[in-house]
Specification:
This protein has 170 residues and is α+β, with helices and mostly antiparallel strands. The protein folds into two domains: 33 residues, no CATH class; 134 residues, Kinase associated domain 1, KA1 (TATA-Binding Protein). The protein has four helices and seven strands. Strands 1, 2, 3, 4, 5, 6 and 7 form a seven-stranded antiparallel sheet that branches.
Length: 170
C-alpha cells in the first residue's frame, strides 16, 4: 500500500513539474492541439454547452447564438472602431494576432493566462452599416478546461471598453 501511495505521489509531483520543465505553452499544445482554434462565422456561430466562452454580438449579426453582451452601435465607420480596438490591445499581455491580416474587418488572436498559459482564441468582426455607422462582435473561447472563471466574459467587456470613447448607442 505504501508503494502505491509513493507511486501516486510521484506521478502527481511529475504532473505538476512537467508543464514548467517542458514549457507551459508546449504542454497545452501537446495535450490539446494548436492554441489557435480557427476562425468562426458569426452568422452561423453556435455557442458551446460548457461555460468557457463569451460572446458580444448584436442580434442581427449572430442569429444562431445568444450573446452575453449586445455590443454598441457606433456612429463612426468600422475602420475607426477597428483602430480604437487595436490601440487598446497594445496594452494587453500575452496576446498574439494569429489571422493573416487579409481582411481589414476581421481579427483573430490567441491570449494566454499569466501563470499557467492557458490559451484562449478570440475572434473580432467589424460590421460596416454605412460610412458613419458600424458594430463589432467579439467571441472569446477557451481551448482547455470546462469552466474559465469568467475570464472570457471579462475579456469581451474589457475589449469593448477600448472603443467606449467612440460615439455610440447601447
Amino acid at each position: 500500500m505504501k508503494k502505491i501511495l509513493l507511486i501516486v505521489a510521484g506521478l502527481l509531483v511529475a504532473g505538476l513539474i512537467f508543464p514548467f520543465a517542458y514549457g507551459r505553452e508546449q504542454t497545452w499544445e501537446l495535450l490539446a492541439g494548436p492554441a489557435d482554434l480557427g476562425q468562426v462565422d458569426f452568422a452561423t456561430l453556435k455557442r458551446r454547452s460548457s461555460p468557457n466562452d463569451a460572446l458580444q454580438c448584436r442580434d442581427n449579426f449572430c442569429p444562431a447564438a445568444i450573446a452575453d453582451r449586445r455590443g454598441n452601435l457606433y456612429h463612426v465607420g468600422a475602420a475607426e472602431v477597428a483602430a480604437a480596438l487595436d490601440s487598446g490591445l497594445a496594452f494587453e499581455g500575452n496576446l498574439v494576432r494569429v489571422d493573416n491580416g487579409a481582411d481589414p474587418l476581421y481579427r483573430r488572436y490567441v491570449q494566454r493566462s499569466a501563470v499557467m498559459k492557458f490559451p484562449d482564441t478570440i475572434d473580432v468582426r467589424f460590421f460596416p452599416l454605412s460610412d458613419d455607422q458600424s458594430a463589432m462582435a467579439i467571441y472569446s473561447r477557451a481551448q482547455v478546461g470546462y469552466a474559465d472563471f469568467d475570464a472570457n466574459r471579462k475579456r469581451i467587456g474589457r475589449w469593448s471598453d477600448y472603443t467606449e470613447d467612440l460615439p455610440h448607442d447601447d
